[in-house]
């Protein structure tokens, strides 16, 4: 009896599962290449002054629309509304550009090491990660959950920053250094928030139904209000946890309850150096 080849395995999967159309299409058509190509091209449209030229032609925008429409078709069973959804996404580009430029400006203002906005746009991993997340977030809202995750996971693999497409992030968001940051699906982040490396905005626990299955769709991750700064290694958990505006959360803090605005939270094990 001959060994089963990969094609045989795929065929059996198709017979047993209705969702393996995705697996088939990814096998050759996606495989990451189209995701990377799309991010590369849309970055030229969103930030032409840094990645292409001073002016974007209508033809370039049409090309982006074609690419996103293709990706939508590759990752969804619902083909009937793809063209309209792709157009809806294209209409979001001016707002996305505005948000990303505000993120870049925030990084320039807050990081004393930054010499130019060009350096930030091209070289800062946090800017790349939040740019991709903002794109993925719009696709997530349109119902293209798998495509949104593929985009965000590419950014995750490239930067070490893991932001779920479902997270809601206000303007002027800055992740300094960035490596190791994790932001969960139902996180809500306000405006002018700064987060340092190794921060986790996660779930404290998962509610279960009578059968012991995790209940999906609940608010599991914290809310971070405007002008909050969270230092390296802090962990903030829970859907009911709210960090009030203008608060400072110190490094390595473990926080599972809300704090009012203008709070300063530090670890009780923080070392004190006396001179």
UniProtKB/TrEMBL annotation:
Transmembrane segments: none
BP-aspect Gene Ontology terms: amino acid biosynthetic process
GO MF entries: acyltransferase activity
Coiled coil feature spans: none
Record's keyword annotation contains Acyltransferase: yes
Keyword Heme: no
Keywords: Acyltransferase, Amino-acid biosynthesis, Transferase
Pathway: Amino-acid biosynthesis; L-cysteine biosynthesis; L-cysteine from L-serine: step 1/2
Protein name as it appears in the record: Serine acetyltransferase
Organism in which the protein naturally occurs: Bacillus yapensis
């Amino acid at each position: 009896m001959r060994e089963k080849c990969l094609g045989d395995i795929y065929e059996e999967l198709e017979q047993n599962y209705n969702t393996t159309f995705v697996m088939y299409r990814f096998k050759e058509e996606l495989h990451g290449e189209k995701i990377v190509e799309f991010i590369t091209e849309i970055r030229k449209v969103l930030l032409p002054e840094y990645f292409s030229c001073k002016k974007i032609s209508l033809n370039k925008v049409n090309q982006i629309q074609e690419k996103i429409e293709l990706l939508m078709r590759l990752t969804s069973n619902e083909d009937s509304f793809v063209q309209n959804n792709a157009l809806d996404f294209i209409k979001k580009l001016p707002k996305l550009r505005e948000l990303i430029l505000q993120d870049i400006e925030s990084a320039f203002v807050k990081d004393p090491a930054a010499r130019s906005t060009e350096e930030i746009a091209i070289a800062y991993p946090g800017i790349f990660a939040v740019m991709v997340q903002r794109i993925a977030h719009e696709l997530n809202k349109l119902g293209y959950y798998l495509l949104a995750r593929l985009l965000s996971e590419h950014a995750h693999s490239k930067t070490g920053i893991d932001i779920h497409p479902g997270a809601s992030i206000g303007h002027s968001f800055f992740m300094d250094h960035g490596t190791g940051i994790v932001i969960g699906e139902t996180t809500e982040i306000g405006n002018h928030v700064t987060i340092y490396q190794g921060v986790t905005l996660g779930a404290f626990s998962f509610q279960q139904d009578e059968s012991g299955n995790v209940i999906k769709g609940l608010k599991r991750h914290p809310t971070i209000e405007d002008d909050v700064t969270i230092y390296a290694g802090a962990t903030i958990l829970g859907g009911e946890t709210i960090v009030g505006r203008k608060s400072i959360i110190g490094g390595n803090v473990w926080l599972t309850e809300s704090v009012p605005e203008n709070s300063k939270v530090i670890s009780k094990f923080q070392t004190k150096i006396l001179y």
